[in-house]
Design goal:
This is 2OG-Fe(II) oxygenase. This protein is α+β, with helices and mostly antiparallel strands. It contains 4 helices and 14 strands. It has helices at residues 17-22, 53-61, 82-99, 174-190, and strands spanning 2-3, 6-8, 26-28, 31-35, 40-46, 66-67, 75-79, 106-118, 141-147, 156-161, 203-209, 215-220, 225-227, 245-254.
């Protein structure tokens, strides 16, 4: 694991010299983990927010959670406040450019911004919800996952598809991956297995990130991953007690002129 140090000065450009000297820079200490056989960088930043209370209170008292019918997410979601999203991205966008060597010609485009809570019992899962998943095959799509509540809650796990050896699914790999995974999906359809929480004959867990309050995790969306759901602590639609996360999805795309 590699540790970097970055200072982010929060002083406004218009601040006077006297004001600026009173403001302390935010010191981030990102950890870089190179995942699996493909050595994909994953960024972990602990204590990323100076104070978790405002974003927690927003989720507890202002957010309106509802089922996400547009995806296979097994729970409820609510929109994130824009100011919070801006603050998070201002802290880490240059780090993402640097670590993942994003071309400077590409700009950040917001894709989806949610509070998320797992709420679906294992017995009600659809077959595809019983498998590790990837968000998109795009090479420049990233998930920023911020753990918000106190634990214990299920970790985030990264999986290798055993028959193909794939850890990331890009456009080129999709046909082989889907062809190889289909018999396993068919078997789950006949014999539902619940949440994927351990290695099996088709998927192998090769890395886990611990759910820890105020930890931010950044990773490419084409990695195979899943929450290791603990039914006793994680299947809970109450934002005060459930596995509350904020999920910021971004993609780097050419600027439209």
């Amino acid at each position: 694991m590699q540790t970097l140090e970055r200072n982010t000065n929060t002083a406004k450009p218009q601040a006077t010299k006297q004001q600026a000297t009173k403001q302390q820079p935010v010191k981030l200490t990102p950890q870089l983990v190179y995942l699996g056989n493909e050595k994909t960088p994953l960024i972990i930043i602990d204590d990323v927010a100076a104070d978790l209370l405002p974003i927690r209170q927003c989720a507890y008292t202002q957010a309106h959670f509802s089922a996400d019918n547009g995806s296979f997410y097994p729970g409820v979601r609510a929109p994130l406040p824009q100011a919070y999203v801006t603050d998070v991205l201002n802290l880490v966008y240059q780090l993402i450019y640097d670590v993942y060597q994003i071309p400077s010609s590409l700009s950040i485009k917001l894709q989806a911004l949610y509070f998320s809570l797992i709420s679906t019992p294992a017995c009600e899962l659809k077959p595809l919800q019983c498998l590790p998943h990837f968000d998109t095959p795009s090479p420049h799509y990233f998930a920023l996952l911020h753990y918000l509540n106190d634990g214990p809650h299920g970790n985030t796990a990264f999986f290798r598809h055993i028959p193909t050896g794939f850890e990331r699914i890009n456009e080129e790999r999709m046909p082989d991956y889907f062809k190889s995974a289909q018999p396993f999906v068919d078997d789950i359809t006949r014999h539902p297995s619940g949440y994927c929480v351990e290695s099996d004959s088709h998927y192998e867990i090769y890395h886990q990130v611990e759910y820890r309050p105020n930890r931010l995790v950044i990773y490419p969306g084409n990695l195979l991953h899943s929450t290791l759901v603990n039914p006793q602590t994680d299947i809970d639609a109450n934002p005060r007690t459930g596995r509350l996360t904020s999920n910021i999805f971004i993609e780097f795309k050419p600027s439209v002129r």
